[in-house]
């Protein structure tokens, strides 16, 4: 299959996946926005991140994010939450398989702290310093994907010194290296 044909196929697969996700999560976002508008002033406590995004207001008391922007953020969080943890676990297991001494230490620590009769619980984490260190090292050696999900510009803006017109798709790349010595994560955005 030639590259242009593969791109069309990939775009079709991604578009279909987005349509399925939007079919299920858009009504939830719309319903929550409607509920938040109805209970305005009655109980302003946010229950979760979606409530927080809906309740954000600008200086004039107007919603900071439109319904479409909230839906886009929710979809982005969904994709990040599904792919990244499983990818990190795969890398951690690969590192342990390739370094049998590390695997032995992790298993020993788990056996001592948790035992073999039950599953690990959140309260066990404080007793698993080597496993925690191994997870951190896995993230250092194999950082999250170098390309984050794209962002769609809703207004003309200057991003990192470059003018991006309304409607532009912006893809932010990070350095691809386990040994990054100096990098700037600060990207200035100026809305025009």
TrEMBL record:
SUPFAM superfamilies: Cytochrome P450. One of its GO terms (molecular function) is monooxygenase activity. Signal peptide: none annotated. InterPro entries: Cyt_P450 (IPR001128), Cyt_P450_E_grp-I (IPR002401), Cyt_P450_sf (IPR036396). This is Cytochrome P450. It comes from Dioscorea zingiberensis.
């Amino acid at each position: 299959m030639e590259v242009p044909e593969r791109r069309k196929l990939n775009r079709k697969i991604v578009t279909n996946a987005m349509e399925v996700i939007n079919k299920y999560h858009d009504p939830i976002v719309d319903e929550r926005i409607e509920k938040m508008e109805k209970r305005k002033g009655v109980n302003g406590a946010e229950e979760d991140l979606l409530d927080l995004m809906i309740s954000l207001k600008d200086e004039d008391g107007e919603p900071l994010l439109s319904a479409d922007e909230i839906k886009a953020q929710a979809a982005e969080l969904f994709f990040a939450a599904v792919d990244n943890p499983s990818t990190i676990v795969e890398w951690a297991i690969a590192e342990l398989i390739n370094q049998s001494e590390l695997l032995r230490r992790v298993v020993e620590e788990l056996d001592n702290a948790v035992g073999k009769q039950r599953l690990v619980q959140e309260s066990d984490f404080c007793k698993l310093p080597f496993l925690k260190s191994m997870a951190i090292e896995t993230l250092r050696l194999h950082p999250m994907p170098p390309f984050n999900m794209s962002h769609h510009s809703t207004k003309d803006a200057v991003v990192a010194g470059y003018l991006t017109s309304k409607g532009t798709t912006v893809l932010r790349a990070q350095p691809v290296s386990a040994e990054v010595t100096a990098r700037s994560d600060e990207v200035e955005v100026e809305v025009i």
